[in-house]
UniProtKB/TrEMBL annotation:
ANK repeats lie at residues 163-196, 197-219. It comes from Lupinus albus. The keyword Signal does not apply. Keywords: ANK repeat. It is found in: Cell membrane. This is Putative ankyrin repeat-containing domain, protein accelerated cell death 6.
Length: 249
C-alpha cells in the first residue's frame, strides 16, 4: 500500500515539474516583431481585438483533461497567434468563463491546478453571472477542484455572484456534502451569510430537507451577540417546519 502511495505522489510531482517548466518557458519567450503587409497587419489587428474570445482548441484541450496535451495546445496557440501567454489565458467563452472556469466545471483537476498556479488572478475572475471558478466547482460538485482552488489563495469563500450567493450557497443548493465540507474547512463563517434574497446557506439547507447537510452546517453556531438571520421573517427552523421537513424537525 505504501508503495502505491509513493508511486502516486511521484507521478503527481512528475507532471507538475514537466508542465510547470514548459509554462515558465512560454512566459519568458518573446513574440517576434515582424514586418508584414498592410492587409496582413489589419488582419492581425482584428485578431488581437478578438483575443478575448476563447480559442476553441483550448476549450477542447481542457475538455479532454490530459494536462500534457493541454500544454501542447497552449504552445500551438502561442506560436500560431503570436499572442502572449497572458493574453491567451485572458480569453473567455461567450458566457465569460475563463479556462479556469471551464476546468472547474468539468472537474479537470490537474489543468485547474496548473492554471491557478501560473495565473492566480483568474481565481478572482468572474463570468457574466459573476461566478468565480470556485462557484463553478461548487455547482458541478467537484470537491477536489474546490480543494485545489482553496489551497492557492484566501478570501474566495466570501465572494458573491450576481445573486449574492457565496460558493457555499451554491454547494448547498447542489446538495454535495464533500464540497460543502471543503468550503466549511476553509471558512465556516459564511454559513450565515445572506444572499440577495436574504437566504443563508443554513436557511437553504433547511428548506432543501437534507439532514446530513443541515447537521454539518449547524456545527457552526451563530455569534451569540447577533440575532439569527431570517428570510421574510422566517428562521432556518421555521423554514424547515414550513417545508414540512419532518426529518429535520
Amino acid at each position: 500500500m505504501d508503495n502505491v502511495q509513493t508511486s502516486v505522489e511521484a507521478n503527481d510531482q512528475e507532471w507538475k515539474q514537466r508542465c510547470n517548466k514548459r509554462m515558465e518557458k512560454l512566459k519568458i519567450t518573446r513574440i517576434p516583431i515582424r514586418d508584414v503587409p498592410l492587409q496582413k497587419g489589419l488582419e492581425q489587428e482584428k485578431l488581437h481585438e478578438e483575443k478575448h474570445i476563447m480559442n476553441f482548441e483550448l476549450y477542447e484541450a481542457v475538455e479532454n483533461g490530459n494536462v500534457d496535451m493541454f500544454v501542447d495546445v497552449v504552445e500551438q496557440v502561442f506560436t500560431n497567434t503570436e499572442l502572449t501567454l497572458f493574453a491567451i489565458f485572458d480569453q473567455v467563452t461567450p458566457s465569460g468563463d475563463s479556462l479556469l472556469h471551464v476546468a472547474a466545471d468539468l472537474g479537470r483537476e490537474q489543468i485547474a491546478e496548473l492554471i491557478a498556479y501560473h495565473f492566480p488572478g483568474l481565481l478572482f475572475g468572474t463570468n457574466i453571472k459573476r461566478d468565480t471558478a470556485l462557484h463553478a466547482a461548487a455547482r458541478f460538485k467537484n470537491s477536489n477542484v474546490i480543494k485545489i482552488i482553496l489551497s492557492q489563495v484566501e478570501g474566495l469563500t466570501k465572494l458573491t455572484n450576481a445573486n449574492g450567493d457565496t460558493p457555499l450557497h451554491v454547494a448547498v443548493c447542489s446538495r454535495h456534502l464533500s464540497a460543502i465540507t471543503e468550503l466549511l474547512l476553509a471558512d465556516s463563517h459564511v454559513v450565515h451569510y445572506l444572499n440577495n434574497s436574504g437566504k443563508s446557506p443554513l436557511y437553504l439547507a433547511a428548506i432543501t430537507g437534507d439532514v446530513d447537510i443541515l447537521d454539518l452546517l449547524l456545527q457552526t453556531p451563530f455569534p451569540s451577540n447577533k440575532p439569527l438571520p431570517q428570510c421574510h421573517g422566517n428562521s432556518p427552523l421555521h423554514a424547515a417546519i414550513f417545508e414540512r421537513n419532518s426529518g429535520i424537525c
